[in-house]
Amino acid sequence: MIKCQWVDFRHVLLGLVAWAAVTGAHARADFVVVPNSLANTEGDGNNGFPFNLANFNLDSQRYQQVYASSQFATLGGPQLITQIAFRPDANGGGGGAFASTLPDIQINLSTTARAPDALSATFADNVGANDTVVYQRGSLSLSSAFIGPAGGPKAFDIVINLTTPFLYNPAAGNLLLDVRNFGGGRTTQFDATTVTGDPVSRAYTNVTGGVGLASGTVETSGLVTRFTTAVVPEPASVVMLGTGVLGLLGYGWHRRRAILAS
Predict the structure, then answer these.
(1) Residue range(s) defining the domain that contains residue 87
(2) Do 178 and 249 belong together in one domain?
(3) Sign (positive/negative) of CA torsion 156, 177, 68, 43?
(4) Does residue 198 register a pLDDT over 80?
(5) Average pLDDT in the 198-207 region?
(6) Which of 177, 165, 34, 57 is nearest to 105 (CA)?
(7) Are both 213 and 190 inside the same structural domain?
(8) Distance separating alpha carbons of residues 65 and 71, to the nearest angstrom
């Protein structure tokens, strides 16, 4: 009977700790749309790269897009990027509801010194030293319900949850999205911006077998993107939480021994 009470106490305690960690992470989540000016406004263009490749008779693609660090000013410092989301085009450029699974995708993020409208045609020149695989190579399921005003913008419901969060510090440079689509696939046309001098631009391949090429085409366009971020837990807070948990567990263990000895 005593053993059951101890097990129940431990499970309740660990459950409370897990609940606190999850709810704490949600409370600290933030959203950044790049370009900031298009958070609630439809972009002036549409594009299917790098996910709607079947629409262009492409079997694969290497795609890079840079985002100006100034667009992340609201973060107030380094934060973890945990999710990337896009929205379908709403201006008659081919956007619509869909659900599909792309067979073979890898996504990297890094901090780059390259600026919008200044990417190199050579992909390696754009990649930062902290290059990180944030979506491990494999299948990727994407969908959209095409919800929102008739003239747009639609909801950011084309969601990619990162398998590895990326620690991004805007003070260290711009952000580079690097997508390798090894297997083509069909989705929909995404909302995009084509304005020269705005905070995004891209480099990409546009030929059969393009994912394996070292260089591609550079242009000013880019997908309107929403990033979900979370504050990095302070080390002191983690230590205090761990110390408190160990203390409570230790108290329960000693109490159990005292009862058994009596």
Answers:
(1) 27-231
(2) no
(3) negative
(4) yes
(5) 98
(6) 177
(7) yes
(8) 14
